[in-house]
């Protein structure tokens, strides 16, 4: 039974990455998939969007390692896009959203084991709350190239806010994270993928180099393909 389940998970992950890659191959341009997680460590009987058990996450990371995928840091992806680099068709990025404590407890040791970089987009005002990361945990992970990005102050639906409220959520999250970590935060993730041209302008003016949003035509229940926003 375990062998069958492992084979199924491997085929599922390979099919998912392959489908994303093939979609953009048809468009004569490979866009690097960003494999996105929320919780890691939730039992398999409680599947939620972008949530996997510790065992499944371990298997997925080992699959990526064994099959020679190139795991890029988010910064390397952004820099490469700016320079017009043609990425290899086995390149991927690993991302976490919101900043849950289980990212440190379960995902971080596995990422460290395989020497994989990743980015965690933090809901700044929730850090230190029950169920979320602490600032000290974020600092520990950053030492192993699991870096922080911003994800607003309260996980706000930005298109529904006034421009002043959106500015507070976007620029305020950047400011708070920078104050706690002591370095510049360059990357932003739109909660639930929601943005407008005005919201993009606020993120640009706040000093972010790039932002990500959900690709509306993506596939997958466990992993969601994300697409870099256009203002980098």
Characterization of this structure:
- The protein has a single domain, classed as Glycoside hydrolase/deacetylase (TIM Barrel, Alpha-Beta Barrel), CATH 3.20.20.370.
- The chain contains seven helices and eight strands, in the order αβαβαβαβαβαβαββ.
- The termini are far apart.
- The protein is an alpha/beta fold and 232 residues long.
Would you spell out the secondary-structure blueprint of this structure?
Blueprint: H1 2-25, E1 34-37, H2 54-66, E2 70-72, H3 74-83, E3 91-98, H4 101-114, E4 118-122, H5 135-142, E5 146-150, H6 163-181, E6 187-189, H7 197-206, E7 210-214, E8 226-228
Parallel strand pairs: 1-3, 2-3, 3-4, 4-5, 6-7
Antiparallel strand pairs: 7-8
Helix pairs in contact: 1-2, 2-4, 6-7
In short:
This protein has 232 residues and is of the alpha/beta class. The chain contains 7 helices and 8 strands; from the N terminus they run αβαβαβαβαβαβαββ.
Features:
5-stranded parallel beta sheet; TIM Barrel; single chain; 16% strand; alpha/beta; 3-stranded mixed beta sheet; 232 residues
Question: How many helical elements?
Answer: 7
CATH H-level superfamily:
Glycoside hydrolase/deacetylase
Q: Report how far the terminal alpha carbons are from each other.
A: 46 Å
Overall form:
globular
Round the mean pLDDT to the nearest integer and report it. 85
Count of DSSP strands: 8
Major sheet: 5 strands, parallel
Element order: H for helix, E for strand:
HEHEHEHEHEHEHEE
Poorly predicted spans: 23-27, 217-227
Question: What is the helix fraction of residues, given as a range?
Answer: 40-55%
| CATH class membership | Alpha Beta
Radius of gyration (Å): 17 Å
**Class by SSE composition:** alpha/beta
The second-level CATH architecture is Alpha-Beta Barrel
Instruction: Tell me the number of structural domains.
Output: 1
């Amino acid at each position: 039974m375990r062998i069958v389940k492992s084979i199924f998970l491997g085929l599922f992950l390979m099919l998912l990455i392959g489908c994303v890659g093939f979609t953009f191959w048809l468009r004569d341009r490979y866009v690097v998939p960003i494999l996105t997680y929320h919780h890691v460590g939730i039992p398999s009987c409680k599947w939620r969007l972008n949530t996997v058990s510790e065992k499944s996450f371990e298997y997925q990371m080992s699959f990526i390692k064994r099959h020679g995928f190139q795991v890029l840091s988010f910064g390397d992806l952004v820099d490469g896009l700016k320079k017009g680099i043609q990425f290899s068709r086995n390149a991927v990025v690993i991302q976490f959203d919101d900043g849950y404590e289980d990212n440190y407890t379960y995902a971080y040791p596995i990422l460290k084991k395989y020497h994989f970089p990743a980015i965690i987009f933090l809901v700044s005002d929730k850090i230190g709350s029950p169920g979320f990361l602490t600032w000290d945990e974020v600092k520990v992970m950053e030492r192993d190239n699991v870096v922080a990005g911003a994800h607003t102050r309260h996980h706000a639906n930005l298109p529904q806010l006034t421009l002043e409220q959106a500015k507070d959520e976007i620029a305020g999250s950047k400011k708070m994270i920078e104050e706690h970590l002591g370095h510049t935060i360059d990357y932003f993730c739109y909660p639930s993928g929601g943005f407008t041209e005005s919201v993009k302008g606020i993120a640009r003016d706040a000093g972010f180099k790039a932002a990500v949003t959900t690709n509306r035509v993506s596939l997958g229940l466990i992993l969601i393909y994300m697409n870099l926003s256009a203002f980098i």
